[in-house]
């Protein structure tokens, strides 16, 4: 299997260079990943993957599968960028996962199971993988692999936890909800130093008004405690109004790296030449992947892609770094490690 992976990689390398170049040159905002969606789906379709666009009715998400039966191994990544480009290096993770899938497609007759690729749109805007999870997208997946490109200076940064809340004011339109009501809610939230408002929106139907709020915090326990306090606050302050409250999204959960997958991936990352890989590195709250890891055995490979340690994560300089020779070398080694890991799980000789 190792020789087949090396051989196919050499043959396909020009194709992979094109994929990395295209994704780097065409960053797109959340739910606007049209070029990325079509480009990757065309590439995967060319190599025999069955494609489903707008997967689970989520705009610009896609699902691609090759092989049949179990084990079903999921490869998942985000596609969206920010206003300054791929400052979180989603272009790298997208390219790595799709290239790994393409290599494995060349030995599809030996696959003892299925490879399922999930391209997630809009992650930065609303944690789309949570939506897919709630709709059962991963209920049949046996193992999930992902990759996070990073820089060493990212070590002390944690991805915030998040939860969304809706307050429906029954028999009240927006015009009837006073600014004082909204200000009381905002003031209560702002009095909690660990909590911040990510978004807040007041809308109205013919009879009811709906206030939608998303909270974020770098401390998951603070967020969980706040949820209970917020519920009590609403009941006491708005006892004169008829309201309904609802959490309409999961909070971002603590990441659970699967030990078996971790052992397989670390062995193969080192075998592939990533000798400086930090096997103990694991970020606690990697956006909505943490939720998936509580449902499906998951491992996220955290791979350094930048030689200059002074560059900061989630900046334009980090985005520019994703096109460096070093980043591509690390990416190509990671592709090999993922392919070897899939082979190990499927017992391919």
Would you spell out the secondary-structure blueprint of this structure?
Layout: H1 2-25, H2 34-46, E1 50-53, E2 62-67, E3 72-78, H3 90-105, E4 114-120, H4 123-126, H5 128-134, E5 143-150, E6 161-169, H6 179-190, E7 196-204, E8 209-217, H7 220-237, E9 243-247, H8 259-271, H9 289-293, E10 298-304, H10 316-321, H11 325-346
Parallel strand pairs: 3-4, 3-5, 5-10
Antiparallel strand pairs: 1-2, 2-4, 6-8, 6-9, 7-8
User: Low-confidence segments, ≥5 residues, pLDDT <50?
Assistant: none
Distance between the termini: 6 Å
Biggest sheet strand order reads: 1-2-4-3-5-10
Radius of gyration: 22 Å
Please tally the β strands and state the result: 10
Portion of residues in beta strands equals: 15-25%
Listing every helix as H and every strand as E from the N terminus to the C terminus, the arrangement reads HHEEEHEHHEEHEEHEHHEHH
Account of the 3D structure:
It contains 11 helices and 10 strands. The longest helix is centred in the first third of the chain and has 24 residues, at 2-25. The radius of gyration is 22 Å and the shape is elongated. The chain has helices at residues 2-25, 34-46, 90-105, 123-126, 128-134, 179-190, 220-237, 259-271, 289-293, 316-321, 325-346; strands spanning 50-53, 62-67, 72-78, 114-120, 143-150, 161-169, 196-204, 209-217, 243-247, 298-304. Helix 1 runs antiparallel to helix 3, helix 3 crosses helix 11 (325-346) and helix 8 (259-271) crosses helix 11. With 349 residues, it is of the alpha/beta class. Strand 1 and strand 2 (62-67) form a beta hairpin. The N and C termini lie close together (6 Å). Strands 1-2-4-3-5-10 form a 6-stranded mixed beta sheet.
């Amino acid at each position: 299997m190792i020789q087949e992976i090396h051989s196919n990689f050499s043959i396909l390398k020009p194709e992979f260079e094109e994929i990395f170049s295209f994704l780097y040159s065409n960053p797109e905002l959340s739910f606007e990943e049209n070029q990325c969606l079509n480009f990757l789906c065309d590439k995967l379709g060319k190599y025999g993957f069955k494609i489903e666009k707008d997967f689970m009715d989520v705009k610009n998400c896609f699902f691609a599968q090759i092989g049949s039966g179990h084990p079903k191994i999921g490869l998942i990544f985000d596609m969206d960028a920010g206003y300054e480009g791929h400052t979180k290096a989603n272009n790298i993770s997208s390219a790595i996962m799709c290239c790994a899938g393409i290599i494995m497609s060349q030995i599809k007759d030996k696959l003892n199971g299925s490879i399922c690729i999930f391209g997630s749109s809009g992650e930065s805007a609303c944690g789309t993988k949570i939506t897919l999870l709630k709709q059962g997208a991963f209920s049949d997946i046996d193992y999930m692999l992902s990759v996070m490109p990073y820089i060493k200076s990212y070590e002390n940064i944690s991805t915030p936890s998040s939860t969304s809340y809706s307050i429906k004011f029954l028999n009240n339109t927006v015009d009837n909800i006073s600014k004082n009501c909204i200000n009381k809610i905002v003031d209560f939230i702002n009095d909690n130093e660990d909590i911040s408002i990510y978004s807040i929106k007041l809308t109205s139907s013919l009879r009811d008004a709906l206030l939608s709020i998303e909270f974020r915090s770098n401390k998951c326990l603070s967020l969980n405690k706040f949820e209970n306090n917020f519920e009590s606050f609403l009941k006491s302050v708005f006892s004169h109004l008829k309201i309904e409250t609802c959490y309409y999204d999961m909070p971002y959960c603590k990441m659970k790296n699967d030990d078996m997958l971790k052992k397989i991936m670390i062995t193969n990352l080192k075998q592939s030449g990533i000798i400086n890989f930090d096997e103990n590195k694991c970020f606690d709250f990697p956006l909505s992947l943490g939720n998936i890891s509580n449902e499906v055995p998951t491992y996220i490979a955290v791979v350094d892609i930048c030689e200059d340690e002074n560059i900061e994560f989630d900046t334009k300089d980090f985005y520019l770094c994703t096109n460096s020779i070093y980043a591509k070398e690390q990416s190509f080694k990671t592709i090999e490690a993922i392919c070897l890991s899939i082979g190990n799980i499927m017992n391919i000789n």
